[in-house]
Structure formats: C-alpha cells, structure tokens
Amino acid sequence: MKKIILIAGIFSFSFFYAQKGENYLQVRYGSICCGTPSTEPVDKYVTQFQKKNKIKNLEIYRQSGLGREGEFNLYIGIDNLSKKQKTAFMKGLKSAVETQNNARQKNHDGIVGFEETEIVKKADLANARNLTIYKK
Asked: What is the Cα Rg of the chain in Å?
C-alpha cells in the first residue's frame, strides 16, 4: 500500500511539475520613419544580468514581419529565474529600455516598448507566425 501511495505521489508531482506554464516578457521594437532601433542595449543588459546572476542562458525568441519597416518583438523566457531575480530583471530591463528611448532622436528613430505587467504564455507563442530562436 505504501508503494502505491509513493508511486502515485511521484507521478502526480511529476505531472504537475511538467504542467508548469512558460512565461515570457515581450519587448516591442517599432519604427517611426527609418527602421527599428538596435537591440544592442537589451542584448547587453541580458548578457550582463546572466553573468552577474550566473544564469546559463535565457531563452529568447524573435517574431519578425510585424510591419513594413521591419518591426519585430522579442520574447524573453523568465521561468528559470527566482522571484527575486525576476523582479530585478524586469526592473533592469525597463531601465535599459527607458534609457534607449530617452537617447533616441524623437522624429527619426524608432521606439522600444516594454510593459513589465505584460506576460506572454508559451501557448500564445505557439500560434505566432514568423517566430525564430533569437538566443538560447
């Protein structure tokens, strides 16, 4: 009887653990007149965050083809971060995006959008077109 309960417990634990949803942050790159802004500030921040927190790799997808001037979205996976790391990552990412937007030429350069409350689920990405692995 104990073996059956143990096996059922292990099975249910692995089933619920496997059902964990994957969450992504969305960073939008839009154009005003002359193309989209560079991804360099966001890439640099992500790389620095990974080194500082000793994280292997964050999963990043790119969805292209969203407009006539090359608009695209980046989706950054945050499931392998602790709660404290997620908070710090979102705060730093928001700061990097705001710094990039403040440094742009208002009538010329595109804009980067990021909302820390906007979480995209993996199921939503499964239906997205033109989605490729950006970094893994």
From this structure: 19
